[in-house]
Structures
1.
Amino acid sequence: MEEQWASIIKQIGEDPSRPGLVDTPKRAAAAFAFLTRGYTQSVDEVVNDALFPSDSSEMVLVQNVELYSLCEHHLLPFIGRCHVAYIPTGRVLGLSKVARLVDVFARRLQIQESLTTQIAETIMDVTGAEGVGVIIEARHMCMMMRGVEKQNSVMKTSAMLGSFRSSQATRDEFLQLLKLQS
Ligand SMILES: Nc1nc2c(ncn2[C@@H]2O[C@H](COP(=O)(O)OP(=O)(O)OP(=O)(O)O)[C@@H](O)[C@H]2O)c(=O)[nH]1
Ligand SMILES: [Zn+2]
């Protein structure tokens, strides 16, 4: 990847051998590897068996999980927050693991809709929940720094599975909890 970054730097009309840029291909390669490290992670490793028995069958909401991803069309960041809710059936997931699972999928090349669905399906699989709801609100640099150059639009996407899809009351409870904490 370092060679490719050096070549890109050259192609934009810069001199990759000037002092300020000498180490840039190496840094950029390391940064890009970090931003896409989700490809090297597996769900099982990340969850690390942090599932705990619980007789709670009430909604669990983890709100405002920061999210940094890369849009698969322009390789530019989209940045925002993710809200994850589920209704457990006998076991709950370690709190930090919810945020870690968001990152497993955010740290890949994504469109926001697929990212939202992948997070919801994974939480459902891992917990065996009765239902899962995921909402992502994000700003896309490809719409802000270039292209249409709109600074204030926010994309909101949701994925509702199980009881979050079938029950209006469950969806309403989710939206109500979100309002309480924001
Ligand atoms: N649905 C969706 N679209 C996205 C996402 N990220 C970027 N895009 C859009 O992907 C589209 C790519 O459109 P193209 O016409 O192929 O590319 P482009 O000429 O660079 O488009 P502009 O951004 O309009 O300049 C654009 O409309 C982007 O806004 C995303 O997460 N979800
Ligand atoms: Zn884009």
2.
Amino acid sequence: MNNLIDGKAIAEQIRQTIAADVSALKAQGTTPGLAVVLVGEDPASRVYVSMKEKACAQAGIFSDEHKLSESTSEAELLQLIDQLNQDSRIDGILVQLPLPKQIDESKVLEAISPKKDVDGFHPYNVGRLATGNPLFRPCTPYGVMKMLEHTGVDLKGKEVVVVGRSNIVGKPVALMCLAEHATVTICHSRTQDLPGHVARGDVVIAAVGQPEMIKGDWIKPGAVVIDVGVNRVGEKKLVGDVEFAAAKERAGAITPVPGGVGPMTITMLLYNTVESAKRRVAGK
Ligand SMILES: Nc1nc2c(c(=O)[nH]1)N[C@@H](CN(C=O)c1ccc(C(=O)N[C@@H](CCC(=O)O)C(=O)O)cc1)CN2
């Protein structure tokens, strides 16, 4: 049964539109610019940042890379952000998370101009999303919504069960599903009867960061399963938060890991950067 949702293919389709938008902006004399800031040596973060740089190059977006040492102080990072906020070549600023422990993440995210906050993590953008008037939507949840749209899933009146309540994925994806008129349940580590909640989901969105924690036999037959987890098991293997092989037998449609939500995250970052550049051109 081919019930796989191919994130790579959907991402590629959207990236072609983005590249066309970039060409049109360049023809008007504007090159979209993204500043990518990495602090420290976290191996996964280094991989994600180099993927972002490569994706920018392929789309024709100017990427301004800042790789800072593990011992960078909060004041130094805030000073760089201030400089990037004022740099007219830069439409988007991305600070790769997590940050080293001497740096207060909230202070850093709040220092980014909301107009350049292509990650959508600034409280201003969180508030705009919560009040139904988004400026920038966080990339992973936005990617999840685009995948559902491309798969033809209409969320109106559906039971959506989100497992995970992070600021990066769980909470924003729940708000986005609510905006599409779904009935949304957010589950977390203290939820009682998690299997019972998951079993009610017409759509299950897993974002807990625990390898294969959501068992295949919890899934309602025919449900759509979106697995946001990217968990490294052993040296090379990547698995999601859902027990994939068993869940695939019951799901109507399911995302793989890798090749599911992951490629959409970077695609939506490019998308947000280009939207920001369009606003710059329009003087907004
Ligand atoms: N400032 C941010 N930091 C982090 C974010 C974010 O959106 N903004 N999200 C994650 C990591 N992340 C992007 O930064 C990210 C995670 C996964 C992928 C991806 O394409 N995964 C592939 C597998 C890649 C691999 O081999 O490791 C897949 O799932 O197919 C892209 C981006 C935390 N930090």
